[in-house]
TrEMBL record:
This is DUF317 domain-containing protein. Residues 247-268 are annotated as: Disordered. Residues 58-112, 142-199 form the DUF317 domain. Residues 247-261 have a biased composition (Low complexity). It comes from the Bacteria.
Length: 268
């Protein structure tokens, strides 16, 4: 374990011990607000009941995101209704799926669709994941063997995406995506899954495991709050800009004025 100290502390605050954890796929669930506060800032409607599971609906009510720890196996469910251009789809992610990886997918739901064709495998190959392929399955495994991503088709022709991570003791999580899940969302997930960036967890919330590497950092509460607010404010600003562009009144070009007005002539 390495140790690092943040500089620039102000008076009157007590630093708290946190850890940068890698690989991120084994960092544990984390703070749900990393996902929920961003969505609320993007205009998603909070349908949660007091003491109940988290439930958020997209502004157009076509997508619902839920987190329920009170059932088995529990975790995240993301469901998209069928539309004129997209079939119904569902994503489920286990309780220990890091919120940073969940957010890789859910943040994408708030942004305009990219013009580029999605490629689920590109982010994994860029991080040197090991890939295998046969007639029924395409799979990628992280270099350390802790995380995977698969697309497979069973004997009945039913296809689906399957992903997850586990340590040598079998602790971890899994995620499933119906074959109808929009490909750009699956790519957003694989990008977050393959990211080499560590994630931060407070003391007492770091899973135990021989494959987990940590860096100890001392962080002020005001720093944590500032980082969280920066993410929320960025979401609000982007949402405002999109709404302003979509709703601004269109101006009608004035017809060219007639040329009957008098002109000054040069006398010869």
């Amino acid at each position: 374990m390495r140790r690092k100290q943040w500089q620039g502390w102000g008076p009157g605050e007590q630093a708290e011990q946190h850890y940068l954890v890698e690989p991120r796929a084994l960092a544990g669930g984390g703070d749900l607000r990393h996902v929920s506060e961003f969505l609320r800032a993007c205009g998603w409607r909070d349908k949660s009941k007091p003491g109940g599971p988290l439930v958020l609906d997209s502004p157009d009510r076509t997508i619902r995101i839920g987190y329920n720890p009170h059932v088995l196996p529990g975790g995240w469910t993301i469901h998209g209704k069928a539309t004129h251009s997209q079939g119904e789809w569902t994503v489920t992610l286990g309780r220990q799926t890091p919120v940073e990886i969940v957010a890789g997918l859910t943040d994408t739901l708030t942004r305009p669709l990219s013009a580029h064709a999605p490629n689920v495998w590109a982010p994994l190959q860029e991080q040197r994941w090991n890939t295998t392929r046969d007639a029924k399955q395409f799979a990628a495994v992280s270099p350390d063997g802790t995380a995977w991503m698969q697309f497979y088709e069973d004997q009945s022709g039913h296809a689906m995406w399957w992903s997850g991570a586990h340590d040598q003791q079998g602790n971890g999580w899994t995620a499933t995506f119906t074959a109808s899940t929009p490909m750009h969302l699956v790519q957003a997930f694989s990008t977050a899954l393959a990211s080499p960036e560590p994630v931060m967890r407070p003391r007492g919330r770091v899973p135990h495991g021989s494959q987990i590497r940590t860096t100890s950092v001392s962080v002020l509460p005001s720093q944590l709050s500032a980082w969280q607010q920066a993410r929320v404010q960025a979401a609000r600003a982007a949402t405002w800009a999109r709404n302003w562009t979509a709703n601004r009144p269109r101006t009608t070009a004035r017809p060219h004025a007639t040329t009957n007005h008098a002109r000054t002539r040069t006398r010869r």
